[in-house]
Specification:
Elements lengths: L4 E2 L2 H7 L1 H5 L2 H4 L2 E5 L2 E5 L8 H11 L5 E6 L8 E7 L2 H9 L3 E5 L2 E6 L2 H5 L4 H5 L1 E2 L5 E6 L6 H11 L6 E6 L4 H8 L2 H11 L7 E9 L7 H15 L1 E6 L3 H7 L15 H7 L16 E6 L5 E5 L3 H8 L1
Parallel strand pairs: 1-8, 3-10, 9-10, 12-13
Antiparallel strand pairs: 2-3, 4-5, 5-11, 6-7, 7-9, 11-12, 13-14
Length: about 325
């Protein structure tokens, strides 16, 4: 493993919150105290908003990335796309944004992401990242329809090695305006996760950007899981700037897009139902963007694989 690099992910995420705190009504956000800490409701009992979704996404990136809306690409359904960019994408996406922490308690479950993951460092992934984090305040994002209980809150704080009152969690369900956007903002993270799973050296990654269509907010979380996955699997184009050998990158890029999976080709809801709603039975190689471009900054050559599938998106978003 490379010499550990220190990133102030939790502090950077914390720095995003004071400005938002002054405009909670406009953002459609409310706060509540749990076990002395602050929980930001971005869509459970509040309407949320697109700006609340951007805040969720940038907090998830640990303040090491930017998220904005852009016009939809020609031929894709919808009106807007979600663009995410980072000059420190391994720290932003893999040490922070990746939803690698299952938060559980009595009758409680949520997918946890954000910079608190780097503090807890509970996942084997952190052994290969070469990133360390030290902070007396933890910040995280939960994809959930229920507020965490006091017992869950205290457990998360303990695993992050902070006092419960020094824990801040932002929460939103998948089928909400904010939750919908923050999940689609994971196009770059999805590409990097696939690359690392295929054995790519994280130290060779220099910068990245991803763009994916923003689907309509779903009627329920199950439909939302389908639409947000489809936005990435069939509508995302990710570009990653790397150092490497051209011959290796030309071969490697063909293995990255979602089309490399035998499960590719139909809306995610159909795939999910085929496997009785068990994520772990789905081919893991499916979870990647529709199109991937690797740019070798050493030679200036670029390598692209995959293709967009607007017809599948139209089925999913209908």
């Amino acid at each position: 493993m490379a010499d550990p690099r220190t990133f102030s992910l939790n502090q950077r995420a914390q720095d995003l919150l004071p400005t938002a705190r002054g405009s909670l009504d406009q953002l459609g956000i409310a706060t509540r105290s749990i076990a002395g800490g602050t929980c930001w409701d971005c869509g459970i009992e509040t309407p949320g908003s697109v700006e609340a979704g951007r805040l969720l996404a940038e907090v998830c990136l640990g303040g090491q990335g930017q998220v904005r809306l852009t016009p939809i690409a020609a031929g894709l359904p919808g009106e807007q796309s979600v663009l995410v960019e980072s000059r420190a994408p391994i720290a932003a996406c893999m040490a922070s944004q990746y939803a690698g922490w299952q938060i559980t308690g009595e009758k409680y479950f949520a997918m946890g992401s954000g910079p608190m993951r780097a503090l807890a460092a509970r996942e084997p992934l952190f052994e290969k990242l070469g990133i360390r984090e030290s902070s007396d305040h933890a910040v995280g994002v939960l994809e959930t329809r229920k507020f965490p209980t006091e017992a869950v809150w205290q457990d998360v704080a303990a695993k992050c090695k902070v006092a419960p009152e020094r824990l801040t969690l932002l929460v939103a369900p998948t089928a909400s305006i904010a939750g919908n956007l923050q999940i689609v903002a994971r196009s770059l993270e999805t590409a990097l996760h696939k690359m690392l799973e295929l054995g790519f050296d994280p130290s060779a990654v220099r910068s990245g950007r991803g763009i994916a269509p923003l689907p309509p907010v779903a009627k329920d979380d199950l439909q939302g899981i389908g639409r947000t996955n489809d936005a990435v699997l069939y509508g995302a184009h990710v570009t990653v700037w790397v150092n490497g050998e051209d011959a290796y990158l030309a071969e490697f890029v063909e293995r990255v897009p979602s089309s490399a999976s035998h499960d590719h080709g139909v809306p995610f809801a159909e795939i999910f139902a085929r496997y009785n709603h068990d994520f772990y039975k789905i081919d893991p190689h499916l979870f990647s963007p529709a199109v991937i471009t690797l740019v070798n900054i050493a030679t200036g050559k670029s390598f692209t694989a995959g293709e967009l599938a607007p017809e599948v998106l139209r089925q999913s978003f209908a």
